User: What shape does this take?
Amino acid sequence: MTADADPVWPGHPVTRLKGIGPRTAEALAEDGVRTVLDLLLHLPRRYEDRSRLARLDEPIPVESWVLLRGRVLKVRVRRVSRRRLHIVDGILDDGNGLLPVVWFNQRWLSRRLDEDREFYLYGQIREARGGRLQLVNPEIEEVGEDVERIVPVYPRLGRFSGRRLRRLIGQCLVATTGCEDPLPEALRRAHGLPGLSDSLREIHAPSLPAGDDEREDLLLAFNRGRSPAHMRLAFDELLAFSCVLAENRRRRLQQGGLRLDRAATGAFGGEGLLPFKLTAAQRRVLEEIFEDLEAGTPMARLVQGDVGAGKTAVAAMAMLAVLEAGLQVAMMAPTELLAEQHARTLAPILGRAGYPAQLLVSSLAAREGRAVREGLADGTVRLVVGTHALFQEAVLFRQLGLAVVDEQHRFGVAQRRALLEKGPAPHLLVMTATPIPRSLALTVYGDLDLSLIDELPPGRQPVRTVLRPPSARRKVFDFLRSEIAEGGRVFVVYPVIDGVEDGGAASLNEFEEEARALLPGVSVGVLHGRLNREERDAVTTRFRDGSIQVLLATTVVEVGVDVPEASVMVIESAQRFGLSQLHQLRGRVGRGDRPSWCILLANERLSDEARRRLEVICNSTDGFEIADADLKIRGPGELTGTRQWGPGGFRFADLIRDRQLISTTRAVAKSLAETGELESVRTGLARYHPVDEILQAG
Assistant: This one.
């Protein structure tokens, strides 16, 4: 049944449209398009101004895009065998002048072009050999069609592109009247938002203002995704995301959690176990955590802090409070190296209080792993530190009271949920050593309360960062020898182990021999992910005790290797690293009382993006400033490691452009929860923005 015989509606399958049979529908389904609504939500990637007709008796700038009307004369088809190319060319006559026109690999056009018929041609004016101008690969429209307008240009869908795709989506515009608006009218008015039906129509068929200036402003807004119609879809998508997070939060608060009584235990004052005094920022965050633990609802809090801000010390005090209440604590890290580091860090603090940390990682011998799991199940193991091994079905807790997750963004939402399901509504504390701009934190960690440790412990040495070319490597290693002679220790980090992994990067295996030769008489160790646990432990132990003075490593040292004597970080092929990763690596030095350096060795011929990254890291030590720059340069998915699940992949919203909307929609979702409208709005939005499916996928 055709679209003319029976109007289409949003929920109809695409086979209700003209030109869509079962096989074409299958191809569209591979691109996620199954219904008329899916097509309406396939937005143009840009808009072209075809609202003004040019004349060939007036000057037309080279490289400009123009709309012309006329007949195409002297059409011919030529085959260029050497380039496997078919060329269709002719002469466009608009009644005011003549202009050569050419198409490449579109032989079928020769059958369509009739010298007795007029066409609209839209394309780019380019300079050909000899300096003459020609119209290149113009799109053709029949005279009589609604051509003089602002035209949407869509990303390809299956075998549809260009005019065919515009016509296909044009069939769907009648269905916009069936798109029920999920937002209450009062909410729309309060935020100055157009209706959903109007927005979808306007996005695919923009209204044309009368004035030239208004038309230019409209085209600019549409191409930037800043038109009221585009902003409506961005608002809805961010609100849908915020509603899901608010619903998760509401359910968590309704569960009821393990209430800890501050008066009943001295653990809330366990600071005496630490070898240093907490900063004011650490005390403030710790108080926020203690208030959560006393509230009677499951805590879900994110602690952000720059490298070396002391997040682990704060987490240790929270763990002690839960342990003293008779409950179990699990701490999860993304790598075995970091899990081992946490176990070592916690040993002199919580171990002194009678709570030794047990390690549960994949590389444990079967007998050791079984003993830890049995201890967790019967309650004799009170504190465990591990990696993904904690997710295993075989891992059962007698009474898990607190889950602490380090570098949570590397795990994903589904994995975090899997850990929380190990106990009856346990408290959750997430730590991230990667400072994240607030706008992004509200999405990546939108269901968590945010705490910020914005003060470094006293005595931390500033790290001076410099950029050097590879030709300066010998001078750099001369400097390393002088640092080592004065008691310093050195990291040299490579992006890959073997050169075969990445042809343009300095590899550890390739440069190890040279590094040793440049450091005669210096004890050099090697650390990378292919070493087994025993080898890794031996190397890191020797580096800590000083029997190894220089550690050649990959990014396994990004977190988890704390050596206060380390005063220099050398990063080979620094252009291969992201800003946040460079900042993390730099954070391995400057932890003692020596002046510290970070030396970036990078190719002299750099891309603009790589040069901008390296300039930022050389000029700033502020983690939040660096993270903000990283977000602008590389995008949120790269920054957070969450490409697979959403914040880096919103269809309509942009986390940089729409920062204010993120805060606004979070507040709106909170208000809807308070008024009891959250569920109905969330359900309505889910028809257009299934962000809950993205979250479920982790």
Q: What stands out?
A: The two ends are 40 Å apart (CA to CA). The CA atoms of residues 371 and 469 lie 52 Å apart. Confidence is low (pLDDT under 50) at residues 637-648.
